[in-house]
Amino acid sequence: MELDIYNALLAFTLLNVLDIITTYNVIRRVGSVAEANPIARWFIERLGVAGLFILKYFAMGFIVLVGVLQNALTESIWVNNVILALVVAWNSYQNYRLRPKP
Description:
Blueprint: H1 2-30, H2 38-47, H3 49-69, H4 73-97
């Protein structure tokens, strides 16, 4: 059980870092209009990259809080990891699509 929560948190942290990096790269190329989440777009438009970090940390804390309150921390984090993996894949595709053409 202890190893499972460790692995879940490790993947959770890495996927959140990848989400920040890939989101930042898309926004740098296209602007905040590329952000589909209206809450995230609001934070980014008002606070820039700092807004992205602030929102990300609040979201991470919320996922952990829900998992603790439901007595299902590991499961809550793994569900979030699957969703985040899809978001990172989408952001990566957008970065590929928006890359400079030779």
